[in-house]
Amino acid sequence: MISESINYLRNGEDWVKTVLIGGVLGLLSFLIIPTFLVIGYLLRVVRATMRGDEEPPEFDEWGDMLVDGLKGFAIAFVYFLIPAIVALVFGFAGLIGIVAGGGSDAAGAFGGIVTLLGLLVAFVLSLAAAYLVPAALANYAETDRLGAGFDFGTLRPILTSGKYATAWLTAFVVLFAASLVVGILNVVPLLGFVVGAFVTFYASVAAYYIIGKTWGELHDIEMMDEGETPDEQPAV
Known about the structure:
The protein is mainly α. It has a domain at 2-75 and 144-232. The protein is built from eight helices and no strands. Mean pLDDT is 87; it is low at 222-236. This is DUF4013 domain-containing protein. The chain crosses the membrane at residues 20-43, 73-100, 106-133, 165-185, 191-211.
């Protein structure tokens, strides 16, 4: 599936234009809105691939894509907010321990242990969120319901399946390989920053191709007919 995912964007007639737009949006991510647009596009990729469409979507209907991206961001934000809160709580508890101990060596050691434990727990929760978010986004993409991103009744059997685990690891490998390429490019000033945005976008599309394709296979989703809405699809 790795080769299929890497070649996915090239199935489109205007794939160079798509990569250029995606890369430019990546470069402008500091403006926030471009980030939402990229997320919206990735959700389109998931929708298309889960229904068996091998032709990548285009950047159009920007307003709808922006709203879609905002919803996708909200789903991911909620999941990653939990480890962030855990890290802050443990860090604050460690600081209180140090202050309450009057800055003694014992208090410092206790505060350090508490903080380290918090970071460890937060790291584990972050990994869990990273594993869960693609499935949550796929469930949202299928139903167009924001609440579907938190429908654990639907998500649980997907998350515990070997097929999804393999797909997630494969997508991770694609993204990790892209990060290595960007790291190498960073040896040349500005090259990694500029070209890296395009490489990252291309790899992200490939990764979400894998997620969408796997979700469609697990849910046996049929390709939508022209003009058909997700609500008209057979229940799964």
